[in-house]
Design brief:
The protein is α+β, with helices and mostly antiparallel strands and about 270 residues long. The protein has two domains: about 140 residues; about 110 residues, no CATH class. It is built from ten helices and 13 strands. β4 and β5 form a beta hairpin. α5 packs parallel to α8. The two termini are about 40 Å apart.
Length: about 270
């Protein structure tokens, strides 16, 4: 199951409110969960159960050992999400899944950059020995230092670099299958922060390379055609369009474009 992320970017007001809000009195007994390779997750709910302090430790990520004030969100009847703000979005860092067939519940932590969640095991020993006052003190100290605020802010350069890396990977795979260079260039000026935050730009603009890759693998005779289509220009515009001009594939897409893959595939087949 993928990480739960709100479909729209979180407003600045929401971010500020989430960061400046003070947790209510915490419940007396926190819960400590463990996972392989030394991963530990602390969940300290408030007395009313609407919020919780959440800390993940033992991971190679900037959120390691950071204490977040998370909001509890009910997702249907079988899932609860402890959501915090990361990189400008509400992010379901910790989730509780009801498992009727096991007559119980399963806590899962979703780490940034990882598609699959990491199942957790409750540690009774660590939970009983946990120092709740120290967790609260660390939360307040980090808040004063602006640690959570920095992690909450949208980092366009970081997101752009990640999208470029994914596009480069798609290009490399297409080049290997087609036996010719493939290079996708994006008009980033047509992609605002909202799109960059909430859309997979690599999926939208990488669809031409992906379809070239597929056709070269499945139809070897297409490689001759693909040799002249290695330069791909992508931008976001008002509608889905594609054409070849001066041995370049000029591809325009848009947020609500349906069946992009089929659209590109049919175009390439007709060349």
């Amino acid at each position: 199951m993928p990480v739960f992320i709100r479909p729209l970017a979180v407003s600045l007001a929401f971010v500020c409110a989430a960061l400046t809000a003070h947790a209510q009195e915490l419940a007396k007994y926190p819960q400590v969960f463990v996972a392989p390779q030394g991963v530990e997750v602390v969940l300290a709910p408030t007395m009313d159960g609407k919020q919780a302090l959440v800390r993940v430790s033992g991971i190679n990520d900037p959120i390691d050992k950071v204490v977040f004030l998370s909001q509890l969100e009910q997702q249907g009847s079988a899932r609860e999400v402890y959501a915090t703000v990361l990189d400008g979005r509400s992010y379901g860092l910790l989730q509780k899944h009801q498992q009727a067939y096991r007559n119980g519940e399963q806590y899962v932590v979703y780490l940034p950059g990882k598609r699959d969640g990491l199942p957790l095991t409750f540690s009774d020993e660590k939970s009983k020995a946990f120092n709740l006052a120290e967790l609260q003190a660390n939360y307040k100290k980090q808040q004063q230092q602006g640690v959570q605020e920095k992690l909450a802010r949208f980092d366009r350069s970081k997101r752009l670099a990640a999208a470029q890396a994914d596009l480069a990977k798609a290009d490399q795979e297409a080049a290997a299958s087609c036996g010719a260079p493939v290079k996708t260039t994006v008009d980033w000026a047509t992609i605002d922060d909202e799109k960059l935050q909430n859309l997979s730009i690599a999926s939208f603009c990488g669809v031409v390379a992906s379809e070239l890759d597929s056709m070269c693998r499945n139809t070897p005779s297409f490689k001759n055609t693909a040799a002249g289509l290695g330069q791909v220009q992508c931008k976001f515009a008002g509608q889905l369009k594609i054409r070849v001009e001066n041995q370049q594939v000029l591809f325009s897409t848009e947020k609500e474009a349906p069946n992009q893959g089929e659209f590109v595939r049919q175009f390439l087949r007709n060349l």
